[in-house]
Amino acid sequence: MIDINYYTSEALTLLQALIGIPSISREEDAAADFLQNYIEESGIMTGRSGNNVWCISPMFDTSKPTILLNSHIDTVKPVNGWRRHPYTPKQENGKLYGLGSNDAGASVVSLFQVYRYLSATEQKYNSIFLASCEEEISGKNGLESVLKQLPPITLGVVGEPTEMQPAIAEKGLVVLDLTAYGRSGHAARNEGENAIYKMLPDIEWFRTYHFPKESDLLGPVKMTVTQINAGIQHNIVPETCSAVVDIRTNECYSNEELFEEIKKHISCEAKARSFRLNSSCIPADHPIVQRAISLGKKPFGSPTLSDQSLMPFPSLKIGPGKSSRSHTADEFIMLNEIEEAIDFYIKLLDGLAI
After folding, report:
1. H or E stretch including 170?
2. Which of 309, 311, 222 is nearest to 258 (CA)?
3. Structure pTM?
4. How far apart are alpha carbons 244 and 22 in whole angstroms?
5. CA-CA distances (angstroms) from residue 92 to 96, 97, 335?
6. Of residues 349 and 190, more confidently modeled
7. % helix / strand / coil in the chain, to the nearest 5?
């Protein structure tokens, strides 16, 4: 008989402690130190690289596949509007308030308790728990830097707030920096070449163009111009105009393919910040997806980015909480969501054959 109440109590105690330790991206040192000490005090050996902390099941067998249980300890900065102190955990009416409680502290503590259970029982696979850093900024010192230090991974389970529904696909991200070049002149005379006007047709193209391939789970590629900057003074024709485009990609195109196609349609200079944040997708007939369905869950495609984009192996995103609470004032997790998450994770993973 699995004592879910015990694991839930342990998870809540740990989550409250983590909320009390500021852990903004690239500043996770104290939280990583605390978590590592907590894990080791429970008798489990850890690995550490930067602000990433992991543990590998003691019965590790190289002949078995390996499942990675991963979530992140970093948070965004507190937004304006908090009525409570973001770093003071507070329980009210069945809710636990605090920065990072929903995204993704609840997933971190739930997956660690599930790891404790799985690593103490005989399974057909090895398990690794990884609490990674820099997820909120897709930093290179986070999960991406750790994977090469771990044994080969067969399957990833990524803890993010999905209301415990399985995200079997996730959009990727490409950010473009655009620059249009003109020639300065006096605004009172017909002088110069206005870089803003040169940029306008490209902005309109990004607003109206639709890539032909659409995903059944993720829909179309979505392009949004999110920043524009030009000019130094009201009476000077601007010689340069810059813009930023946020592109959410589906699995029908690689990030590089999209970039090459975009360049065919625009006249301004375009530079991609990175191609590393790819769209991800796990087959609907994968054993973990089929088990989730058999347990009453409904697979979906997620529009939000996570560390799944950096995993070169099949992965499933599933965790307690709601995505709509992330990065908001008075962020919270329902206490019963943690209990339900631990219970479901164990039902999903216990005895799974992959």
Report:
1. strand 167-170
2. 222
3. 0.92
4. 30
5. 7, 8, 10
6. 349
7. 30, 25, 45
